[in-house]
Write a sequence for this structure.
């Protein structure tokens, strides 16, 4: 991934990220530096939090990257999948109802969510909810569209 531009965020930009991540995920980012990295040929912009790609912008909304979510574990907007779904989700597959063991009730359709595995709670992917959290557990159907996952270009990004 090629960097188009990179610059430190002003305090109002930092406050916006910290407030939205705290409100949506229950996560307090505690960092000294925040840098916005605009990428060539990518729909995402990244925010380096103390030099690590911890936040991405999806549709102008900040959300934790997979690496960011494992560094700052989210307390809400989490979908938990069983062991049978881990390899599929890690490869970028969308999440199907039978693989979900739990989903936060505060998730609304179109929200960004962190997708975690049940045994260790590690985040494997970030996705977009296709249904409300209360409707995610069940027998059939796709309920989360994968946006970013372990091993993709964004996950492998280094500066």
């Amino acid at each position: 991934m090629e960097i188009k531009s990179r610059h430190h965020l002003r305090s109002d930009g930092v406050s916006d990220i910290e407030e939205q991540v705290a409100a949506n995920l229950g996560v307090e980012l505690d960092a000294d530096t925040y840098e916005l990295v605009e990428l060539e040929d990518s729909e995402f912009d990244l925010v380096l939090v103390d030099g690590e790609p911890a936040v991405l912008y999806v549709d102008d909304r900040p959300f934790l990257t997979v690496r960011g979510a494992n560094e700052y574990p989210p307390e809400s907007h989490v979908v938990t999948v069983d062991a049978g779904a881990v390899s599929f989700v890690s490869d970028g597959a969308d999440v199907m109802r039978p693989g979900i063991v739990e989903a936060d009730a505060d998730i609304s359709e179109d929200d960004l969510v962190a997708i975690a595995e049940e045994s260790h709670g590690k985040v494997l992917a970030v996705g977009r909810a296709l249904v409300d959290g209360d409707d995610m557990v069940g027998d059939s159907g796709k309920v989360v569209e994968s946006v970013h996952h372990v091993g993709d270009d964004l996950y492998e990004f280094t500066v």
In short: The mean pLDDT is 95.
